[in-house]
């Protein structure tokens, strides 16, 4: 039987976010509806730190929790060291182990319409590609590994393969579903569905992740929480998707 220490060393907690040199100027224009310091090029950085703290607390990782208790300015300074060219956009993956040892994996990421980083009512570019959104054919069991983002992502990777999504660059997503038929979340995004002229996102009780853009959307009143069942989704219906690297994207349900 695996011990608690061996279980702790078998995965790490993570959070992925965007560094974008165009964010500060745009955030200053919309400071009243953007919850972060407008001068930071890190998208929703405080929410990412809070998300990592919540994961460390859940898994009872005292070393990680102590490291994550540093102030936001120090946290940002730590991440700064991973940016080799501040004139470009980067996809950053913050990785923290149970002992509080952290690293940042930085990869160049394509430029996007900067307005995509703000909640959809502020969206100006409606010509962006529509993502194909599939529904997983097998259930996923909710656990600490679905509520919190970790490197233990086999279930999400399997769901993507079942949907035929072979590359992370594809404009495609798959919705993971619990055994009760409730939509939990997307494999890499938070989904939002329109019902009676109100946007809804699945509640955390369905088993999905407490994402940073999800928190942002809820805080700004863009959406409310409501249980969404897979049999309520209609082929061709439009939805929104969001994550900490790409912001908000349009999606369309593809019911196979």
Task: Provide the descriptors you would attach to this structure in a database record.
D-amino Acid Aminotransferase, Chain A, domain 1, alpha/beta, BCAT-like_N, Aminotransferase-like, D-amino Acid Aminotransferase, Chain A, domain 2, 256 residues, BCAT-like_C, three-stranded antiparallel sheet, catalytic activity, Aminotransferase, class IV, eight-stranded mixed sheet
Mind sketching the topology for me?
Layout: H1 4-9, E1 13-19, H2 23-29, H3 45-58, H4 62-68, H5 72-80, E2 90-96, E3 102-108, E4 131-139, H6 144-147, H7 154-162, E5 172-177, E6 183-186, E7 190-195, E8 198-201, H8 212-219, E9 223-225, E10 238-243, E11 247-253
Parallel strand pairs: 4-5, 4-11, 8-9
Antiparallel strand pairs: 1-2, 2-3, 5-6, 7-8, 7-10, 10-11
Helix pairs in contact: 3-4
Describe this structure in words.
The protein is an alpha/beta fold and 256 residues long. The protein has 2 domains: 4-111, D-amino Acid Aminotransferase, Chain A, domain 1 (2-Layer Sandwich); 121-253, D-amino Acid Aminotransferase, subunit A, domain 2 (D-amino Acid Aminotransferase, Chain A, domain 2, Alpha-Beta Barrel), CATH 3.20.10.10. The protein contains 8 helices and 11 strands. The strands form 2 sheets. Strands 6-5-4-11-10-7-8-9 form an 8-stranded mixed β-sheet. It has a 3-stranded antiparallel β-sheet with strand order 1-2-3, with helices on one face. α3 (45-58) packs antiparallel against α4 (62-68). The model is unreliable at 1-6 (pLDDT under 50).
């Amino acid at each position: 039987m695996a011990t608690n220490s061996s279980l702790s060393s078998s995965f790490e907690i993570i959070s992925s976010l965007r560094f974008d040199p165009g964010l500060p100027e745009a955030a200053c224009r919309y400071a009243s509806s953007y919850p972060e310091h407008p001068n930071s090029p890190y998208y929703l950085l405080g929410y990412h730190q809070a998300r990592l703290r919540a994961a460390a607390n859940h898994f009872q990782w005292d070393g990680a929790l102590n490291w994550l208790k540093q102030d936001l300015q120090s946290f940002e300074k730590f991440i700064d060291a991973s940016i080799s060219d501040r004139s470009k956009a980067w996809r950053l993956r913050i990785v923290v182990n149970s002992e509080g040892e952290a690293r940042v994996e930085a990869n160049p990421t394509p430029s996007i319409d900067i307005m995509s980083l703000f909640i959809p009512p502020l969206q100006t570019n409606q010509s962006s590609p529509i993502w194909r959104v599939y529904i997983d054919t097998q259930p996923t069991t909710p656990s600490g590994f679905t509520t919190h983002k970790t490197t233990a992502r086999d279930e999400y990777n399997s769901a993507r393969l079942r949907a035929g999504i072979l590359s992370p660059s594809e404009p495609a997503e798959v919705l993971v579903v619990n055994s009760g038929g409730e939509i939990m979340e997307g494999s890499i995004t938070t989904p939002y569905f329109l019902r009676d002229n109100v946007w809804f996102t699945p509640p955390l009780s369905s088993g999905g992740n407490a994402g940073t853009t999800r928190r942002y959307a809820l805080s700004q009143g863009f959406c409310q929480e409501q249980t969404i069942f897979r049999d309520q989704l209609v082929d061709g219906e439009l939805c929104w998707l969001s994550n900490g690297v790409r912001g908000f994207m349009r999606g369309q349900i593809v019911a196979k």
